[in-house]
Amino acid sequence: MIALDVVLSPLFRIEGMAPMSSVMNIIAGVLLGPFFATVMALVCGFIRMTLLGIPPLALTGAVFGAAFAGIGFRVIQKPIGAMLGEIIGTGILGSILSYPVMVLFTGSSQSLYWFIYTPRFIGATLIGSAVAWLLLKKISPLPSFKRVQQIFGGKSHGKLKA
Question: What angle do helix axes 19-52 and 63-76 make, rounded to 10 degrees?
């Protein structure tokens, strides 16, 4: 999951958005649960920051979304829960928390305001949610998907329904 996120996020990106990160967060939330999805996003963020020169938005934009995606799936037991968690975690919470992080990172608050990242982050999560939903419809019936889900403490619910 880490390798896929690190490789795919820079390849399939829209300027200012990383929808593949949202795809990976949602799939990790469904497959691995909140703890391991968060660890995955944290490691990916650090790798992308150190190797690809991406600012700390790699962390604020992904870690909360991964955690909330896993929690959302655990609560609702459907991929829509992971999608909502990603939208709330990355699109809202992560985007708002990105402002103070970037002020510290750049040393300036000029032309920045609290919701500067929100439209892009929400846009990326909506695109990523749509792609993740399509992928989950295809991979959730696979026995290997169910097996990995059980290994990481999740419950296999047969074919996942959105």
Answer: 150
Cβ-based neighbours of 101, under 8 Å, separated by 6 or more = 56, 57, 59, 60
Q: In a 10 Å sphere around its CB, with 0-12 CB exposed, 13-18 middle and 19+ buried, how is residue 87 labelled? A: buried
Please tell me the distance from the alpha carbon of residue 85 to that of residue 69, in angstroms, as a whole number. Answer: 4
Residue 138 three-state SS: helix
pTM, to two decimals: 0.85
* Tens digit of each residue's pLDDT (9 = 90 or more) over 41-94: 999 989 988 888 877 777 887 899 999 999 999 999 899 999 999 999 998 998
CB burial readout 24-51, b (16+ within 10 A) else e? bbbbbbbbbbbebbbbbbbebbebbeee
Q: Which two tokens stand for residue 148?
A: 């990995």
CA–CA separation, 41 vs 154, rounded Å?
Answer: 18
| Each residue's pLDDT tens digit, 7-39 | 887 777 776 677 888 999 999 999 999 999 999
